[in-house]
Amino acid sequence: MAIAQAIGDTIEDQRTPPPDPKKRGRFTPYLLLLPGMLWLAIFFAVPLVFLFSTSLQTPVAGGEVGEFEQTFNFGNYVDTLTDEYYYVPLFRSFIYSGIATILALLIGYPLAYMIAFKSGRWRNLLLVMVIAPFFVSFLLRTIAWRQILADEGVVVGALRVVGLVGETGGIYPSALAVITGLTYNFLPFMTLPIYASLERVDPRLIEAGSDLYAKPFTGFRKITWPLSMPGVVAGTLLTFIPAAGDYVNAELLGTGKNSMIGNRIQYEFFNVRDYPTMAVLSFVLMACIFVMVLVYVRRVGSKDLV
Amino acid sequence: MAKADVTQAEGDLHLERLTKQFGDFVAVHDLSLVVPQGSFFALLGPSGCGKTTTLRMVAGLEDPTAGTIRIGDTEITHQKPYRRPVNTVFQNYALFPHMTIYDNVAFGLKRRGVKDVNKQVNDALTLIQLSEVAQRKPAQLSGGQQQRVALARAIVNRPAVLLLDEPLGALDLKLRRQMQLELKRIQTEVGLTFIHVTHDQEEAMTMADSVAVMNNGIIEQLGPPTELYESPHTVFVANFLGQSNLFPATVQETDGEEIILEDPDGKFRMPKERVASGVNTSGGSNVLVGVRPEKITIGPRSEAAAAPIDGNYVDGVVESASFLGVSTQYQVRTEGGEQIDVFAQNLDVHGLLPHGSHVRLTWQPHHGFVLAPDQDIRASADVSAGVSG
User: Fold this and answer.
1) Predicted complex ipTM exceeds 0.85
2) Which among B83, B95, B98 has CB closest to A304?
3) CATH H-level, domain B247-373: superfamily
């Protein structure tokens, strides 16, 4: 009885008037946002401001290499963007990552489709296999592609037999090798969001389409594809954006002729120590990607999304 | 755009010796059926009885293991679903969520490359009284509205056969009643063959011209609703459609057009035509006698000391009485030990026969029916009670 009484009292104690739900609810969302916002402010917004101010700096007259003073020299942007040494790799970055994105979509979509609709009890195993490469370092995997695409490797050997590659020709190092590496490295980022979208498509909708005279391909085009668009948009963005800024693939699988903007940024920073140019390139890359993504999402994303 | 090459076919739907197996499980067993053109046909049965599988075979969404499907003279047994002149209203409606109502309804017409799509879609939307929502997406509609859109999307194609897979299952009771009448109106208006799959006996009886009662992959009985109700051929049908009192009896003799039966409560006379086909009625054989609760008249025994001249009767004691307003439901224990349910219309204002009253139950000979004995008396009684409530 005493215990029951005590418990009763405890419960009684907790019956303080509940805080006004409106009042409490008003602050909860902000509290939940706080850690993320702080993180972004310290590690994204502030560095961005530093980066932008760096992009406007000028070398100190008679100073050492890497010594700059804060100015507002917007001419840095003009000088950099009119220099073939910079704008060609920038352009090349978008070409390479664009091709890699399309290839990843062509490989990733059927793969995701197969896993979502046809894999049966193998589904989880196949999903693990899509993610499995992440257990090995990104660098190691990319270096491995050197072996795969090497002149004495299987791929080139097979292509020589078929005649697609000349007796003395090869694939590595080349633009093709860089694009192959990009496609390979970002394929899971394409496959997984598409899978997530396809997995939510109700198979009964496809049956309904078939019942309403849609042949299999028409059914795919009119029902499955539009319903998987959120995954396709997410997958292409997750592939294109990091691929455009990547420099490892170009570094390991290409030559100087295949340099991407990432390679230039890396070189300016670590070797030339031309920090303003590095900052300009970073900002331009960011701006270009931002504009492209905006146009893409508005063209593709707003339409057909459920 | 590739236009679907849809088979032209017209006439009655014939299912001949249709069988569907999933591994070892026989979902539909040697089923034969003719659905007359332009009729409203119901496939009625508990879940798992094979009715939906049958429907899906007609739609082309399942491939029959054996047997044939014809519309008129055209065989469609193994034809792809998109070539069949058959459309389905799916149980969950399966409306395309990314398309407007208009585009949903226009989908089939566009695939076939029909001209004047616009007019036909608008006519269909008028038919279901939803013209004003044409530009909305399915998610913005209520369940009842989505149901009607699913119907319009199928009907607009004027299929030779329209299949409805439990189309009203997701609606609440009131809306369901309303949609039953609406479906019947639309069917009469467009004159298409409707095949309606349902587990709700009331729904089947309200709408259908004929009903096939399915159980364990076979058709137990097929006929107009009144015939199924008044003359069930199996215990399953007797219990699945409404309620029945069933008790075992022995055939004593046949007397001209009548058959005389006996059980611990006495003798019953019944016209021979009330005996289900295939029941052995030679003297001494066992049968089941059935009579519907509302066909029985109940009265105090003292008022009827003499046996009624015309009719069967048993005497018993009231075990329970529930007053339902429009009727009173009695449970009576007969002297022979049977429990009999009686629905008495409240024609008098005398009130109930109290618990423990000695009563006499009488019914007209042609109101009873006789079934084969080798069946579980409870067959489907629980099922129907479970789903119709």
Assistant:
1) no
2) B98
3) Nucleic acid-binding proteins (2.40.50.140)
